[in-house]
Amino acid sequence: MGFTLQGVEEIASLHGEPDWLLERRRNAFDVFERLPMPSRIDEEWRRTDVSGLDMAKFSEFEHRNGAGPAEALEGVAGTVTMRGSEIEAVRLDPELAGAGVVLEPISVAAKTHPELLETLLFTQVRAERDRFAALHAAFFADGTFLYVPDGVVIDKPIVGQVFSAEGGTAVLPHTLIVAGRGSRFNYLDEYLSPADEAAGYKSGSAELFLGEAASVGYVALQKWGRNAWHLADQRARLDKDASLRLFNVTLGARFSKTRVEASLQGQGAEAELKAIYFASGEQFFDFHTLQDHQVGNTRSDLLFKGALQDVARTVYAGLIRIEKGAARSDAYQANRNLVLSDHAKATSIPMLEIDNNDVRCTHGATVGPVDPQHLFYLRSRGIPETTAKRMIVQGFFGDVLERIPFEHARRLIETELEARLG
Amino acid sequence: MADFEIKDLRASVEGKEILKGVTLAINKGEVHAVMGPNGSGKSTLSHTLMGHPGYTVDGGEVIFKGQNVLALEPDERARLGMFLALQYPVVVPGISMTNFLRTALNAKRGYDGKDKSKQVTPKEFRSLLKSELEVLHMDDSFLPRYINDGFSGGEKKRAEILQMAILKPEIAILDETDSGLDIDSIKFVADAVNRMRGPDLGVLIITHYTRILQFIKPDFVHVLVDGKFVLSGGPEIADRLEKTGYSEWAEADEPAVLKPEEVA
Known about the structure:
The complex is a heterodimer. By secondary structure, chain A is an alpha/beta fold. Helix content of chain A is 23%, strand content 38%. Chain A has helices at residues 5-15, 19-34, 94-98, 106-112, 114-120, 131-139, 372-379, 385-401, 407-421, and strands spanning 78-83, 86-92, 102-105, 142-148, 158-163, 170-171, 173-179, 184-192, 201-202, 205-210, 215-223, 229-238, 243-250, 255-264, 270-279, 284-293, 299-308, 313-322, 330-339, 345-354, 360-368. In chain A, the strands form 2 sheets. In chain A, strands 3, 4, 6, 7, 9, 10, 12, 14, 16, 18 and 20 form an 11-stranded mixed beta sheet that branches. Chain A has a 10-stranded mixed beta sheet with strand order 2-1-5-8-11-13-15-17-19-21. In chain B, α5 (153-167) runs parallel beside α6. The longest helix of chain B has 15 residues, at 153-167. Classes of the chains: A alpha/beta, B alpha/beta.
């Protein structure tokens, strides 16, 4: 294969995809061919260097063989497991299936639910955005489609897990979630590969559509191996009175760039956007966020918290956009960075674009080391420095961590923090 | 040889010499008060003894259990049996008091995450907490809260004393524990310290004002002025300061008793 038109057609034919989807892939491929690699002249890429990325090196898809085994999850309502670029298993509580919930690979849902997918797929995460988004839309491997009908409430979370192990390949999963009016549920995407996996290209984008008064928790936990290139978009559209709690957890990859965006299109909609990231070694993380208040009486609350150590670097750039008609909107944005080494560097760029005066907007950013007073206080009680630091970092993340609606994910994060902090 | 010996301790802050040779011997079972006007070096003394990184030791030694503790990290000093009740207890977001106390107790017992036999069991910890809280007449409502977060001045000082009660130090330094406290809180702290007094505990109370010494009777009083002791003796020194303040030594004639309106 390769990132060629022929490659596009091979994937579509392998899945037996309908014509509209093949067409969509072809259009995305055109965009991919047309757009140049982003360079540091582009504002969004000014601090984000992709010159070392040779995509052609990773143009093979990872297959199922060699990928790590999935640990069985307990306490979930459904799972979609992918190994490499292939779906391994889909499981859904039969009661939910009976209530009209659909949990299917996108390659299947494109045929069974074209009315939803044809209208929605790649309308939030758009190929035109840049060359990487175009690559993802043209070559996405497969992924999760979740539809929860009007009024259906799911207590246990639904989890998508993508395992990778080969390196040297492309792993491009996609998630499409449609929440019916008044539905309520939590969904988690986990992207996992061994820390020492060879370099590869990974995406892992998600589109969420929240109908009127839907209430959705979405978690994306990225823990690819430490050599990976990861470029992803997570974007949600919220109708009237919808409520989104989105958590981005970024722990893996050598290079990770994620855009997290909420488009508030209905009055009364509210989006909580939170992130935890921990960059060690030579990791580089870039986050671009958008809180797009298109109509009035909408609320957004963003808090991105990161810790950095060794020679890691992070960039956060976030925009609150309040459009002209969006009176009485309320937006909050904060980026907090805990810098644990003299050689790590966090950059934070909050931005506002406000076309309406009758709004409330607050934003702030902090970048700093562990407070020496905190450290001394803990140590003065006999707690060794390493333990004290770990407690402080865990405490720093605590207010976001405790809101993540799935214990399995919280544990995974805690284990990783402990491993990194010694 | 006393249990805890400070010998000719000299220390500076940001290059400025503050302690200019402090010598003091404390035995377990004794309560010493160090009194001094503003800027005399009281806080430098307490922080230097505990190893705060903002203070530089320029000379001298502090011998405790046969070791010069000035060469130890703050947490090593604490595990050896030292305790500092801070004048301004620090708010640490994200860590609950319970977690803090449990981790500190485990550290004191030498539990490093490996040897489970040294770890305090949940049951033992609960019962220890319960009995100490009872003795201190404290309720447990602040335990799930973050360290000192949203605590009143009095609650912070009570929490310091609770930590002391749980960690059971052999040398306790109380740094201006009375400052900013109302009379009820001072009595509370004093009662608690008096209950802990005994042959296993040496106490160093650092204070500007004589007030707390009405409730915790010291065996010895030392007056610190400009980084040196200018007078040492028995509790009668506190009475003398009560009348004359620090006028004998300090340029600014600072009283050692609070004005009536400050007592409220």
